[in-house]
Amino acid sequence: MASRRELGSWLEPRRPASGTPAAYPGERLGRPDDGPRSLGSFGRRLVALVVDWVMALLIAGWLLRSSGLEQFGPLLVLLVENVVLVGLAGATVGHRLLGLRVETLEGRAPGLLKALIRSVLLCLAIPPLVWDADQRGLHDRWAGTLVART
After folding, report:
1. pLDDT tens-digit readout, 80-91
2. pTM of the model as a whole
3. Are 148 and 91 in contact (CB under 8 A)?
4. Disulfide-capable partner of 94 in 9, 52, 136, 140 (CB 3.0 to 4.6 Å)?
5. d(CA 106, CA 124)
6. Tally of CB atoms within 10 A around 76
7. Which of 83, 81, 128, 133 is nearest to 110 (CA)?
């Protein structure tokens, strides 16, 4: 029977043929350690999400106050905001303010389909809280995206 050590885990960093671990998050994705195109830190991504959430609360409170959607309105606004802005522009308002951009692994804007997958998973709350050695949440891994600094 194979042991856990032999099988490994998707949470563990992939090791190159030399057997040495990656020196920093994003190295195995071909990203620099710091500066433009490096992976966005957890703190920056969290603040960007808080900015987007506050914006969604304000918009939902203004647009949907008497529609019966008060309970899920902010989440719906956050979903639509993420799909449209990430899909077409590569970043939400929060991302832009914090100097972040959502990209495919090749460095392009994700497009609407990948943005939809990423946004639905983001709204489920758990996938963004589980991340790998490259600091990519499940929502980014499953959508084939990452959050990079601009």
Report:
1. 999 999 999 999
2. 0.82
3. no
4. 52
5. 26
6. 17
7. 83
